[in-house]
Design brief:
The chain has 513 residues and is an all-alpha fold. The protein is 68% helix and 2% strand.
Length: 513
Amino acid sequence: MTASDVVHVESEDGASSSSIQRDRVGKIELTGIEVVREESRHGSAWELLFLWIGTNTALSYAVFGALIVLLFHLTLAEGLIATIVGCLLSSAFAGVVCALGKNTNQPAMALSRRTFGGVLNRLPSLVAYVNQLGWEVVLLATAVLGVEAAALALGDRSDTTVGAIALVIMLVGAIGLALLGHATIIAFNKWLTWILVVLTIVYLIVAWKEVSVHADLGSASMRGGGALGVIGGIILIMSSVGLSFVSTTPDYARYFRPTARTSTIVGVTTVGMGIPTALITSFGVLTFATIGSISYVNNPIVQLLAPVPRWLQIVILVPFVLSLLSSVVYNLYSSGLDLMVVGVPLPRTRTIIIDAAVLVGGGIYIVFFSKSYAGTVTGFLLMLAVPLCAWAGLVVGHQMIGTKLTRLASSPREAQAGELGGSATQAFVAAGAYVVACVVGLGLVSSTSPAFDWVGYIGGRASTVAGSDLGILIALAIGLVGGVSVAAVAGGRARREIKGRAPAVALVDEGAH
């Protein structure tokens, strides 16, 4: 480390100081969950374009496209509508949450202390950590399945051995990149994006021609799911795309310059995350119309690649596996930050090692012991989407919608106090709304996985509402209302305090403690 790589900064409480490394490619990032100081902010919203394309141009989304048709019995048109709407809506919402990282210059679960307070914020932070860990396992397992599919295309039937070797190599690569941190991850995705775009276009042209010629639009399994079936498909796609990113996107916007615009962040996220996933997921829908089923339950990638020549299967699997590896790195980086917010008294470099150790066990289970890839993945997605949406709704409702309403209803001084100030009442309102949203939301979703068969307890798992998983959107709505209520509590407290104090009252950021 050189002197140019270190800046002297003031700690959060303003009473002490420490040195942190600047965000540099190829050097370990030492910044944790503290606020990124202005002299270290160098990023542009446009760098998100490479990050989202690099982490979302993955063949696993084709699997989700086939799954929504299979689970909700959608026609080809219904499947494509659900895919496009789900991808774009969820990506736009992920962009809105991402902008909070630029506004606060903190990672996601650290900035939510402004809403939940320091202690109660540990609950949603723990849920976010479990979400990141689960995604790491799912994505790593999917990458291993991709390597196994490539081995089968080459004629090698010893796919278990190949999968074990691939698991070790990808674990080492993912841990290394996550340890280096933000700048290196962004740089990795920049060169990966160009490879992915070129090869994905070639792949989709060849594969689309094959599947569109043989598509069986009259397949018995594609009898039409109706409006609720389409809604269910939209929600499953939203859960697998943008909503799965909401507790991580601010982590990559905290280094942005103050001049970065919220509209640009939302737009770039919608395009970079939504367009690639919509294209690949739509291909999965069309592929299912061709094959009519997914017979390779433990490795659906094999059958999704069937319409194209073997040589192209091998060529396209390399960047797809790299994209999945990029997604593992993305989640591993954020999960290390989440552990710090939960209260683990270790620096980011060590929390990542802890997380990686858990990832090894989960990866081994889902690759070599899980009996149903589809059931495990969808069950996990739908269950964790509820608390994630509840958290995102609360934070957006409080820190975006609620603060704007506070500014309109208060004097400038009262509005500033309401935005910065925190109280036990505010924290309990936020935690109460979060719990209510989770309880109601989980009671109105369904799961095909035995591990999650306890959800859907309101009206039964076979009910129309649970079957379409509307509980996820209901949890989001409750969170938004709860977030606005938190802002109202903070604004009312600010007005009472200012009336009872001298004009020179100091404003203190209590919400971060």
